[in-house]
Structures are given as C-alpha cells and as structure tokens.
C-alpha cells in the first residue's frame, strides 16, 4: 500500500513542487495539502495520513504547535511528522523535535533525499541527518544545558554500553556506523538502541539525541 502524505506549507508553489516529486513515486500518495497548522490538524483528522511533511513558519498556527498536537497524547491517528527547515532561518527546529517530530529535512534537499526521508519516517524510524543534526544542535547550544545541571537519574538505568550507544546516536551516527565504531553487529546496535529508548521513555532516536544534549551527556561541538 502507498504511503499517504499530507503536505503542509504556506507557499503553494512549494507544495506543488513537492507534490510533483512525490507523485512520481509508486509507493507514495499525496492525499492532501494545508497552508497552516490549523488546516493541517483538520486534514490529519479527515485524511489520516501516514506522514505529514511540515513547514515550521506559517500563519495562524506554526509547525511546532501543529506537530505537538498531531503527535501528542490523544492524537487522532498514527501520523508521523517530518519537519521542513531552511536551517539558517528557522529557530524552532529543536522545539519541533521535542514536540514529537520524527526528523527534519532541508527544503533544498535533493528529490531523492526527500523521498527516502518520507519512507524512513513512515517505517517508524527517525530521519536524523548527521551533519545537519550536529550543526543544528551546535547553533542552538545556548538553549541547551550548560553542563552544570544535575544529570537525570534515568541515565543511571543505562548500562555502560548503552550510554556509549546513546552518545553515538546523539552525534548522528547510523546503526551501521555505530556498529563499526564499537566493533559489534548492527543487530546488537538495534538491540541497544531499543533498550535505551525503552528505559528513558523515548519514542525514537531523534528524541534520544535531544535527550542526550539536554541532559548534558553530550555537549554541542564535542566529538
């Protein structure tokens, strides 16, 4: 069955461009469009999309609040949110991730990256582009803890290896890259990631990355 996609952006021309790209793929179907967050909420309830391609800066209701309502408690469906950002202009991407977005993508990303990102998010994974993630978290380092805060007690529930994996996830490494770094199999990495998410009560690796920075486990700019 095709992945049902809802396009949310206040620029009709961009929505048209995204629609042309996605409808060229046999496994993707654009089921609707919205020009702001309030329309997006209505469309999500009416159309039950699998993935919402969400702009951040929009009139009436921005993408952060719309994301929070779509993915938060009492949500009407299983829709995943993939945030679109211009990076240099958007100041709220980290907030969108905290709100429940499954990842983010630059608006000028190549068509094949957009298509792949939607497939990844629809499959329940997180779209965490490593280089963009590091730059983004570095850019907003001032909004994150200074490192002087007390480390959350929940970190104590993780094993030493799980802490290692969490740090690498926060750096934006894929399962394959983590496996190579730790000299273990990808299956083992997936198991560790699953344990981390369960123990910390997190939805996906995007939230895990944000948690690692917010808790002070990983510092912006650190390698």
Write the layout of secondary structure elements.
Blueprint: E1 3-8, H1 12-23, E2 28-34, H2 37-47, E3 51-54, H3 63-71, E4 80-85, H4 93-99, E5 103-106, H5 111-122, H6 130-139, H7 160-170, H8 175-182, H9 186-200, H10 205-214
Parallel strand pairs: 1-2, 1-3, 3-4, 4-5
Helix pairs in contact: 2-3, 3-4, 7-9, 7-10, 8-9
Q: Give me the side-by-side strand order of the main sheet.
A: 2-1-3-4-5
Shape: globular
Helix content: 40-55%
Main beta-sheet strand count, sense and barrel state: 5 strands, parallel
Could you give the count of β-strands? 5
Report the β-strand fraction as a percent range.
5-15%
The tally of helices reads 10
Tell me, rounded to a whole number, the average pLDDT: 82
What's the alpha carbon Rg, rounded to whole Å? Answer: 17 Å
Please trace the helix and strand order, writing H or E for each element: EHEHEHEHEHHHHHH
- Work out the oligomeric state of the chains in this entry: single chain
SS-derived structural category = alpha/beta
Low-pLDDT segments, ≥5 res: none
Please give the alpha-carbon distance between the first and last residues. Answer: 41 Å
Brief digest:
Helix content is 47%, strand content 12%. With 223 residues, it is of the alpha/beta class.
């Amino acid at each position: 069955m095709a992945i049902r996609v809802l396009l949310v952006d206040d620029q009709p021309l961009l929505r048209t461009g995204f629609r042309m790209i996605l409808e060229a793929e046999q496994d993707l179907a654009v089921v609707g469009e919205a020009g702001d967050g309030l329309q997006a909420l209505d469309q999500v309830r009416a159309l039950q999309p699998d993935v919402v391609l969400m702009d951040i800066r929009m009139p009436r209701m921005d993408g952060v609040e719309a994301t929070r309502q779509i993915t938060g408690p009492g949500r009407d469906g299983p829709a995943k949110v993939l945030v679109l950002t211009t990076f240099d202009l958007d100041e709220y991407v980290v907030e969108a991730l905290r709100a429940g977005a499954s990842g983010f993508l630059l608006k000028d990303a190549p068509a094949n990256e957009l298509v792949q990102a939607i497939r990844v998010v629809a499959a329940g994974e997180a779209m965490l582009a490593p280089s963009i993630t590091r730059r983004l978290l570095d850019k907003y380092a001032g909004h994150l803890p200074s490192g002087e805060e007390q480390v959350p007690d929940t970190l104590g529930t993780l094993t030493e290896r799980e802490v290692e994996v969490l740090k690498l996830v926060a750096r934006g490494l894929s399962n394959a890259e983590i496996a190579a770094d730790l000299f273990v199999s990808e299956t083992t990495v997936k198991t560790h990631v699953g344990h981390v998410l369960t123990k910390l009560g997190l939805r996906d690796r995007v939230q895990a990355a944000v948690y690692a920075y917010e808790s002070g486990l990983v510092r912006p700019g650190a390698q």
